[in-house]
Design goal:
By secondary structure, the chain is α/β, with parallel strands linked by helices. It has a 5-stranded mixed sheet. The protein has helices spanning 59-73, 97-106, 122-132; strands spanning 19-29, 33-42, 48-54, 85-88, 110-112. One of its GO terms (biological process) is DNA integration.
Length: 133
């Protein structure tokens, strides 16, 4: 699902684990090369629920980070009426069929921002930018 560009979401989150934002950022580690940091940020609390640092930026890296987020939040051990929705950009790892299948198996909805305009998503990008400084 691609949402229409707007300044903010019409339906704002009112509690934790309603909407998780995910993004990658890249870091150069001296002597090792480039690595990619995958993060999952809770939209309501603004806390980073999970993160993973690795040499690739694949759908499997996204699912590994989401598995960690589900475990840390306890949502993988209990039956809940609504799993968190996932908000991402349109990067190749987020539009991959493997991720879509994984999300379907977990009962999670995926919302992708309109190309070149991701309302609210800048929170996840700002948290990543703070790490690079």
């Amino acid at each position: 699902m691609v949402i229409k560009a707007a300044n903010e979401f019409k339906d704002k989150t009112t509690a934790v684990s309603q909407l998780w934002q995910t993004d990658f950022t890249y870091l150069k580690i001296t002597g090792w090369g480039w690595y990619y940091l995958s993060t999952v940020l809770d939209d309501f609390s603004r806390y980073i629920v999970a993160w993973r640092l690795g040499p690739t930026m694949c759908a499997s890296d996204v699912t590994a980070t989401l598995d960690q987020a589900l475990a840390v939040s306890g949502l993988d051990h209990i039956a809940v009426a609504h799993r968190p929705r996932l908000l991402s950009d349109n990067g190749s790892s987020y539009v991959a069929d493997d991720l879509a299948k994984w999300l379907d198996q977990k009962g999670m909805q995926h919302v992708r921002g309109a190309p070149y305009h991701d309302p609210g998503k800048d929170r996840a990008e700002r948290s990543s930018a703070g790490i690079r400084r």
